[in-house]
Backbone:
């Protein structure tokens, strides 16, 4: 049986030919009102040229998420193939952290609208595509088969993300398959961490900073360290494990700090203290030359292009504050997790901040998200995390 056909205009066709895997509502040139929401459709130009196959979402601005551009059947066999390829990739790039890694990263693994993270033998999934939600029994069957040798104990759904509402999907969370403790103790590069899959951020933990946290561990030895927006202590604990002289971890959330304290106790780390405070206000109370290393890992200050300049000012404020309280020759690790805060804009902000404070930035490294969050160069949406480490010295 042939799939229904959705026609798009020339602008949309050019977009897809350049590698994009989303088809937007404003590129439609045919009526979709008679089609079933969540059905599989073929996309064609107005002249009949085939451009891809995917799931239709009638309520979302992303009208079709494209799964294939090769006339493939989107079924169990397709899902299994894509998931096996994704797991093979992780085994190659993340051999030492397979028990705590992102297994499926949506479009980057050819499965738009699906996120799967692994914590030990528990998979935590998130679906943000109407069609996948309708077919999740087949999807999860393929997922368990792809990881059959890992003896997965449970699949926990974190379908409580707001973006589901744009698809007309309800919000919920709970076990789909099996049952397990909702707090898992993982080992990330030798550091033990409690991960709350039920109530933690995202799917329980921020796996995308894994490799960047190791960079901080190696840099922290003998230093007084300040970790801003510490959440449950990922960077702070890595610094402490790296034999920092002392670590101060600051966050506004008491719940997150309590989890950070539990993680410190789990690793018998006594050289770290947790402070509940608004980071902006806390930085204002500090004196010059107070720290040797400062980490700025704020939440996304913007989630749309409309508020980018407001975010720009927020990033600039905290980076200037950090540069002012670092000792001469100290180190600044600073990042943005917003894809709308592009590298060029972030770097412009850093240059302005350094100039206004009267310091010079000596670049040590520029990295991005961990390798289990691969970046598709033809989809800028998959490229979101920017992580810079500088030595900060007084300008001459």
Residues:
């Amino acid at each position: 049986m042939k799939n229904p056909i959705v026609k798009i205009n020339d602008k949309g066709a050019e977009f897809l030919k350049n590698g994009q895997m989303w088809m937007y509502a404003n590129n439609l040139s045919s009526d979709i009102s008679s089609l079933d929401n969540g059905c599989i459709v073929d996309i064609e130009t107005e002249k009949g040229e085939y451009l891809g196959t995917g799931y239709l979402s009638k309520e979302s601005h992303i009208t079709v998420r494209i799964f294939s551009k090769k006339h493939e059947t989107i079924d169990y066999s397709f899902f299994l193939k894509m998931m096996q390829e994704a797991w093979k990739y992780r085994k190659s790039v993340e051999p030492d952290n397979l028990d705590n890694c992102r297994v499926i990263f949506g479009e980057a693994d050819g499965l738009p609208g699906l996120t799967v993270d692994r914590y030990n033998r528990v998979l935590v999934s998130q679906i943000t595509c109407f069609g996948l939600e309708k077919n999740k029994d087949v999807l999860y069957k393929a997922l368990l088969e792809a990881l059959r040798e890992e003896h997965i104990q449970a699949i926990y759904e974190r379908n409580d993300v707001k973006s589901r509402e744009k698809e007309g999907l309800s919000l919920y969370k709970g076990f789909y398959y099996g049952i397990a403790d909702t707090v898992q103790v993982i080992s990330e590069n030798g550091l033990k961490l409690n991960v709350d899959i039920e109530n933690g951020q995202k799917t329980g933990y921020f796996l995308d900073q894994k490799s960047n946290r190791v960079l901080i561990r190696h840099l922290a030895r003998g230093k007084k360290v300040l970790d801003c927006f510490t959440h449950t202590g990922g960077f702070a604990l890595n610094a402490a494990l790296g034999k920092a002289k002392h670590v101060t971890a600051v966050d506004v959330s008491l719940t997150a700090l309590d989890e950070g304290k539990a993680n410190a106790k789990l690793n018998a780390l006594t050289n770290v203290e947790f402070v509940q405070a608004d980071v902006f206000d806390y930085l204002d109370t500090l004196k010059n030359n107070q720290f040797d290393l400062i980490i700025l890992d704020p939440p996304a200050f913007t989630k749309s292009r409309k508020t980018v300049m407001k975010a720009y000012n927020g990033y600039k404020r905290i980076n200037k504050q950090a540069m002012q309280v670092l000792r001469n020759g100290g180190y600044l690790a600073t990042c943005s997790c917003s894809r709308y805060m592009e590298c060029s804009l972030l770097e412009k902000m850093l240059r302005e901040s350094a100039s206004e404070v009267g310091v010079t930035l000596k670049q040590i490294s520029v990295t991005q998200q961990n390798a289990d969050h691969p970046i598709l160069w033809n989809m800028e949406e998959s490229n979101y995390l920017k992580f810079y480490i500088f030595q900060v010295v007084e300008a001459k």
Notes: The radius of gyration is 23 Å. DSSP finds ten helices and 19 strands in the chain. The mean pLDDT is 94.
